[in-house]
Amino acid sequence: MGNVVASAVVSLDGFVADTNDEVGPLFDWYGNGPVEVYGADPGRPFRVSQASADYLDATWPKVGVCVIGRRLFDITNGWNGVPAVGEHVVVVTHTPPTDWPFPDAPFTFVAGIEDAIAKARELAGDRDISVTGGNLTGQALAAGLVDEIAYSMVPVVFGTGVPFFGDYTGGQVLLEDPQVVQGDRVTHLHYRVRR
């Protein structure tokens, strides 16, 4: 069985987007380097530094399923039916879309985080599950479902916005020392949750 990894690109002060759901400079590092890397979409290359490419090449292929919220699904239009990373996407929502133009895409809609992780485990087999930052991360962490945290920190302070852990109120969680990879305009911090 793979790990459940809470992951996102974040500002120094812990936001995954501003108050308008814009990422601003958070994703600039995806296009500032000489090395091409790909998630699940062969038509969507990223150009990053060698250090970031090595980190992404070591982590992205391990992901079988991404768990996202309805908000991210709506903002990205479900990446037009192609998962960003992995082979399948589980969307947490109480109102699945009825008119999405990609009905055959590998997307499953479920009502809660526990059901989403259970479905993702079924689909992922022995591969990892990526949970996107925001309220889902906080819910998964509070439920004790997160094994690792992948925090790609960009040197910018937002001041306000959408927090990586959403409205988390689950108490302290200790992490092991991070694996640290210094990219160009991003620092990848990868932690194991201490059990």
From TrEMBL:
Domain Bacterial bifunctional deaminase-reductase C-terminal: 4-181
Name of the protein in its database record: Dihydrofolate reductase family protein
Organism this protein belongs to: Kribbella lupini
